[in-house]
Amino acid sequence: MSDHSGSTVQSASDERALEDVVLVTVDSWRADHCGFMGYERETTPTIDALAEDGLVLENAIAPAPATNSSVSVMFTGQYQNPALESNDIDYTERVRQHMRARRTLPQRFKDLGYETVAFTANPWTSRYFNFDRNFDHFEDFMDENLSSGFVKDGADKRGLVSDLAAQLLNWYQGQDMFMSWESFYDDVLAWLDDADSPYFLWLFLVDVHMPYFPPAGYRSRSRLSTWPANVSLFAGQYELPFESLFHDVLVDAYDDSIRYTDAFVDRFTDDVDGDPLIVLTGDHGEAFGENGVYGHGPEVSEAMLHVPFVVLNGPTKTVERPFSLRKLPEFLPQLAAGEDVESLLEPTVWARNYDPAILIRGQNWRFEWRPAETQVAVREDGVWEERSVPELKMLGRELLETRVEQERERGRILEAAEAVTADAAL
After folding, report:
1. What is the third-level CATH fold of 16-347?
2. Which stretches of 28-159 are DSSP H helices?
């Protein structure tokens, strides 16, 4: 195995010591279901213990409440060009264009001399969407994955019967959102056997994503109860059939899936050589009945946007100021170089979906905007309550207007740049 004993090398470009970096993205992982974030259940015993000596960002906010739109921002530091939202370009094509045209997180590491590799079990971060750009080795398992035939249209366009049929076939194959981390764990270790420092390794785990089917040994509910509960999710995120029967079953299965992911951290930290920086976070959260919603995607709520964020083998600190995962392309290289990352923390961060809905999030307050309404919530003793606070509503509107205008200006600049590039190509 390559020598990772020190896990640092001298960068040829600037003579700085650079750490190996492992970014572990856990699909649908919400912050308040983790022990180190105050959850009463023992879902993350390994991470809890490691977090005591790690860097914990307590108010990490995902850029968006769905994988495609969130991870594309996490990788580029930018939202999609606003000018594209009003035209006829399909959403999936917008993501492809976005990932093709922007400088990405792996590119930043490559520019520093890193070897880059990715293993993603999520088809929505596959090569189809250009997430493979700037990786020396990229494995998305799409050649064997049934979703390769569906990913272009999206699950929401298939309909209940065809979507359920696809999920059942994927379950039989152990693919798509049924692909456990153990199914490709040996592949990851095999790559590490031949890796040269410094390396950037991205792992995208989907064990926590719906449907929630933790393996034997981590199951606190019988399959007889978890199957109908999970099937009910495909009947509608807003009006869950037999919610009174299924709610607790789904939460238990979700927590069991988190415990199974915690087992990955336990095993990986034992197996990996040296002391690479290991960054653990979610791409978005998950709702369990908040505002009548299950799953993720339609809202900019705390349940869907507040995610865990822990760095192991790095600084030892707990940070309360908000942090947007949009800053990852700056944050991770700076952290790897031993630089201070405090400058990347902001008083407020923002997130959005494409309904549209926009969130402005402070440390203990949040402003949520939709075209027909706005609302303000304040957190006291860990509990969020909607409040009538005119000052915060006014501040939220001002911050929103400023940010929207910045995005519009960026869109105009991008359009002009793309036009110049197109002319030059001719």
Report:
1. Alkaline Phosphatase, subunit A (3.40.720)
2. 45-51, 67-76, 82-85, 91-101, 105-111
Give the residue with greater pLDDT, 285 vs 342: 285
For the CA atoms of 355, 370, 87, 153, the dihedral, rounded to the nearest 10 degrees, stands at 0
Secondary structure class of 216 (helix, strand, coil) = coil
Amino acid letter, 103 = R
Return the residue matching tokens 């979507």. Answer: 163
DSSP state, residue 397: H
Cα 167 to Cα 94, 179, 367, distances in angstroms: 26, 12, 36
Buried (b) or exposed (e) across 237-276, using 16+ Cβ within 10 A?
A: beebeeeeebeebbbbbbbbbbbbbbbbbeebbeebbbbb
Question: Helix or strand or coil: residue 341?
Answer: coil
Question: Which token pair is 43?
Answer: 């879902």
H-state helical runs in 214-343: 223-233, 243-271, 302-305, 328-336
> Which residues, in sequence order, are CB contacts of 234 under 8 Å at separation 6+?
160, 163, 164, 167
Domain range list for the chain:
16-347, 356-426
What whole-number distance in Å separates Cα of residue 92 and Cα of residue 41? 38
- CA atoms in the 13 A half-sphere facing the CB of 367: 18
**SS3 at position 34:** coil
pLDDT tens profile 223-282? 899 999 988 887 766 678 788 889 999 999 999 999 999 999 999 999 999 999 999 999
Torsion sign (Cα): 261, 265, 271, 277: positive
Of 79, 99, 77, the residue nearest 344 (C-alpha): 77
The residues, any chain, with a CB within 8 Å of residue 399's CB and separated by 6 or more, are 348, 350, 360, 367
Contact present, 207 and 261 (Cβ < 8 Å): yes
Enter the tokens of residue 390: 């005119």
d(CA 352, CA 74): 13
